[in-house]
């Protein structure tokens, strides 16, 4: 069952629009294969099992997915209840529709929203929030787009969890092939991570949470933070 609170995005920064434009329905049909079987393990050196493990150990009964992709990871997550409630937040109607269709056996709500702005969901209304493979697609440095962590935390109840993953360009090992692909994706405006460092991500997590875990797998940072009770 899906509720639809989406509306056409208006007056968003062009770089943000350019970042989500490649994710149309035809491209989304191949996204999982190219990302979780292709670029993640081969170029970023992070196994799909690492992403799935992060979801298994982090999702709550009422979950908000920010930057939804295809809904692949929440569809494979081991929720603590059999009937989780999932809110999907994205600027791209195509990804919202695709993910909602994939998660159609759960109670889902689609919301058009920008992670760089306060999310259009009630404060402290969810048990968990995910930003998986989102930050490296958002324009700006982590010092700027780290505000997405603040907005995710606002949507989570005290004691809840904010977690996610992102591809970094410095402070982590980047293979020659990975650097080449990263440069191409940045040039196309699909990625915006040429300034993203492990140090800046750590700093942003410290600014927004007192309790967090941060690990790296290849060029990918995976994090889990708990909102103070």
Number of strands: 8
In N-to-C order, the SSE pattern is EHHHEHEHEEHHEHHEE
On the 0 to 100 scale, the average pLDDT is: 89
So what's the CATH class?
Answer: Alpha Beta
- Report the total helices: 9
Indicate the proportion of strand residues: 15-25%
What can you tell me about this protein's structure?
With 229 residues, the chain is α/β, with parallel strands linked by helices. The chain has a single domain, classed as Vaccinia Virus protein VP39 (Rossmann fold, 3-Layer(aba) Sandwich), CATH 3.40.50.150. The protein is 38% helix and 23% strand. It has an 8-stranded mixed β-sheet, with helices on both faces. The two termini are 31 Å apart. Residues 4-12 and 15-20 have low confidence and may be disordered. Residues 64-161 form the Methyltransferase type domain.
